[in-house]
Amino acid sequence: MASGGESLAARADVALASEAPEAEREGTEVSSTAQASMATSHPTALTLDPAVEDLHEQLRDKYKDADIDVDVAIMAEDASPSVEYIQINLVMISRVNLHEEFRNPEFASGGDLARAEHALTEAGSRREKVTLESLFLNIPAKILTNALSYRVFAIASGGCGKTTIFTKIATWKWARKELWQEFSILIALELRHPDVRDAKSLWDLLELVGVDIPPMGKERIALRQFVKSHPQQLCIVFDGLDETSLAKCSRFVKLVISGEELKGIRMILTSRPAQDILRLCAKYQLDRRIEVIGFHRQDIERYVLKLLGSIKGAALLAEVKEDQHLLAMMCTPILAYEVCKLYHYCQKVPRCLSDIFDLMILRLAGRRHDTQYDTWLEIPFDVRMQVLELGKFAFSMLKQQRLVFTEADLKEFSLSEDAIQLGLLITTDRSPSVREKQWRFSHLTSQESQAAKFVACCENMSPQFIVRLVESLGPSSGHLQTFWILLAAQLDPSC
Hints:
Helices cover 50% and strands 10% of the residues. It has 495 residues and is an alpha/beta fold.
């Protein structure tokens, strides 16, 4: 799922340059005053203000008990795995010359992204390794001095773990006082949810997280004043900019992202890479760009052994070491997870991208009928129709950029109860303000794979059809890039 023609294996072996000083990024000298400001920008643990103490404790309780949302977990009794069980540090890198990149004329003129990246590389841009712990260190002095918002833009190809690392692992570690203790309030929300996009105030965002906010009165006034006086103690994560459109977002959400509302906060904005997204972030002049590039090879070994244990894990790793294509696929965390799950439940090792999702369907169908299927045609005809029914639904929703669905959507599409219960759809967490049950696929990549399976199985894949398909889906967007990769894999398993 690498973008820009870069292979997964190449991504996994990227050489990371040493960290450059902030002065080098800006191309100017740093004064002694600025150096002093930057030195004091290293965060320290806080003494909680009484105005925010109750909210802080509610958020900690909410995050530290979080589970990873998966259809079946590789644990005893098939319980959902805790973040502690499944977390592995992902490889992240940071662009050094971020502002030079955003000023590149290729971005401003709507030119080709690859040429812009090449021009930036030729100009001496480097990439440096970054960790969650260092994400908010050495904030530029001008941001601290002027109390501006500091906004981090984190991009990653589909399945590389940006949602897990920023909305699960980071919040879990914050709740356990292992990360970002300079923040009294940490809010992590997914932009795929209409209620998040429609938020009109900070109170709306807090309610969507699922905490009790003070009623109108002295407590709320005190909390509002705290945020106004100490905005640097508030961090908001907006996950999945590619999964929506800013045109669909409320004025409040747009102003928060632009830095004009809740001025002075810290923010992380995640997305899959796409030209329209990068240009949008150039428009808003975000302060730092992070790329989540998944696993290095040694991470794959630790991850497999953690999920499968020493005996079964070693057996799978022996297969991985003999297959470079499989090794490259497993640099993407969601694919590494699916490979482990398939090996655990089916004792099968997928050899190509289409194998992973085909075997996943075979496993789910076999679980429903308490048997094991080895090929698509062995699955009972009615179950195959349910899979294609879901695929048609997934494709229709992708075209509309719909990633969260209501009961009304399922009924309107006449999805059968058997199709819904197959295991590909899961219910989402609901806030008190959301009364109707909401559904989504277990992972966006799962929705894309089912859509690709439907298109590959049900349509005449002539050149004319491909042209019509491209036209119907509109311009390139991050939420469709993986769909095209998976469709290619369905049509040509060697992809």
